[in-house]
Amino acid sequence: MKRISILLIMTLCHFTIYMNAQTFIRVSTDRTDLIYKVNGKTGRIYQIYLGEKLLDDSEYKNLPANIYNKAVSDRHEAYLCSGTEDYFEPALAVEHNDGNLTTYLKYVSHVVVKKDDNVTQTSINLKDDVYPVEVKLIFETFAKENIIKSRSEIFHSEKKAVKISRYASSLLYFSDAKYFLTEFSGDWAKETNISSQELFYGKKVIDTKLGSRAAMFASPFFQLGLGAPVKETEGQVLAGTLAWTGNFRFTFEVDNLGDLRLISGINPYASSYELDPKTVFQTPEFIFTLSSKGAGQASRDFHSWARNYQLKDGKGERLTLLNNWEATYFDFDEEKLTNLMKDAKDLGVDMFLLDDGWFGNKYPRINDRAGLGDWETTKNKLPDGIPYLVKTAKETGVKFGIWIEPEMINPESELFKNHPDWVIMQPNRETYFFRNQLVLDMSNPDVQDFVFGIVDKIMKENPEIAFFKWDCNSPITNIYSPYLKNRQNNLYINHVRGIYNVFKKVKDKYPDLPMMLCSGGGGRCDYEALKYFTEFWPSDNTDPVERLYIQWGFSQFFSSKSMCAHVTSWNSNTSIKFRTDVAMMCKLGFDIRFNEMNNDEKEYCRQAVASYKRLKTSILDGDLFRLVSPYDGNHTAIMYVDESKNKAVLYAFDINPRYSEKVFPVKLQGLDPTRKYRITEINLMPKQKSSLNVNDKVFTGDYLIKAGIDVFSSSKLQSKVIEITAE
Ligand code: DGJ
Q1: Does residue 524 sit within a domain?
Q2: Mutational test site, ligand 1, from 331, 434, 467, 471, max ligand atoms within 8 Å of CB
Q3: Which range marks the domain in which residue 127 is found?
Q4: In angstroms, what is the span from residue 626 Cα to ligand 1's centroid?
Q5: 8 Å CB contact between 307 and 356
Q6: Calpha distance 374→360 (Å, rounded)
Q7: What is the pLDDT of residues 538-585, one digit of tens each?
Q8: Angle of CA points 573, 579, 581, to nearest 5°
Q9: Structural domains of the chain, count
Q10: CB neighbour list of residue 515: distance below 8 Å, 6 or more residues apart
């Protein structure tokens, strides 16, 4: 049996093991080459190329092409260490047992494993020849999607633990005339504001120290325009993101020769990690693509890669839903929830989602000051418990989903009284509370078991629960782990690893359970967590105008399938149509009092849900084309095109046009120029006639791409959804 499986693995994978030092190591996709070269004399290894794929397989051996001083090929050390003759930010810094702070890594071997036609893994083994420290650089390439994952493993066999104060996932070098960085920053309810700047000598850092709600201010992704600012459809853009649900750091450093060094990894802030002998330190993955056709292509590559490889159930269905959070907040009972379930059925969505406020007895969760930690249904609010709600939903004809925030605790809880030692909290200082709560110490295995047990118990008692919303409303405050005692430097990192242990256990036991990643909005939005979650909640801000910007920002890296968008009551200046049209660009839900809508609005919503379900394949699995940016004026438009180019959906919004502003035609993208397409406006209010001058007309893809169509108006807060069908 053992022999058969070894044979099977040998047939499936193509192994190439290089025992002797090879000079070149080529890491490539169908469109990108990242090439390293070993210096035969010193054994040290250097990046000599990162760019568009070289077509002639023999030519990369001519690199580096432009030697303007003789040291150029040895200038960009693959995993630069502290203490060498390169004086810029290192990828690795180790304090050895004797106090020495230097490390020199030399090439040992590399291994290429072709996992299948699309995926290849290249591991490069490096070793210091003075101290017993080893590093493995691991690259995984996705040929068709043009995505490269880069991470490292650090290992040593010194007598005692070493301290590592730098441990990059990736170090990349660029040699261009100019560099322009686009970043995505903000705060609660104003996520992913896009800003750009040129980089000059010195460092620009994007980082977070928030711990659990890590991405509340800065998102763990960026775009880098090489030679020119980032544009949508042209130019070289490196788009990168760190798959880590904790403190991250991107360091962009322009050096003395005008080259740019980009270091991505865990933020080493307050985390000089104590690594025990013979233990592997795994860094998270830095995931990137290099596009030669602007940010649009980079986004589409990220989206299809995520659906194919990373997102939980990336190829599967998504459930439309009605959530009760904004309809009731904490003020609900069985009757109110039953009525909302009926609304969900009437609306035509798949599921009812019960939000915060259903648990706690001694300290009931009637507001956000108590109850977190006590995951028992509040008896005087919901006397028949969750089983009754699941049963009622079933009888009503909708599925049932539930909210939890299992990594957190209110001091007003039985859990806190029983287990103060499970909480990240200062033993000897006044406690600071964020949203009246504290963070459980996920570095402690007992706490991990407890958190897993919350999901497991709910599922065991209610196997028909169809969905979880997993919230996380506080950053780590009062940083001190009673469990880690004198190893506090390991807390930020071990905490995240503890969370992953739980996510993994949940996914292993409940592989088909859809789950929403939420962190008071977009405080968690990274591709490691999304291995365990089918979708995420980009923002608590559901004002549709704001959402046009927020969704535009997140869409740079995340597909519509992974982004939840709900129709709510935010911004009463906008119509229900405008709000629904915005939410219909992503994974659609409602969080509103449906019964308070007038009949036309109700009918409009029912029709919109039905159209959404009909067009889901294009909207959630199609290619996204961002046509007009809301950052460029008073309108915005995007479209999705399905894989076969048979069907497309175009969304157009007039935000705040000036009086008599010039309205311009929008040129479409992604269609087959040789085919003919019918234009049909959908999502019209009952009795509303389309104002589109091209409604129900047929054009070639060529015409639509080159001449475009008029979809904007000069009226404020108008929206159009247009179905485009190949004849
Ligand atoms: C923050 C989330 O983002 C909201 O959607 C809601 O679930 C609240 N938490 C509940 O406390």
Answers
A1: no
A2: 471
A3: 2-310
A4: 29
A5: no
A6: 5
A7: 999 999 999 999 999 999 999 999 999 999 999 999 999 999 999 999
A8: 140
A9: 2
A10: 312, 467, 468, 469, 470, 506, 532, 533, 534, 535
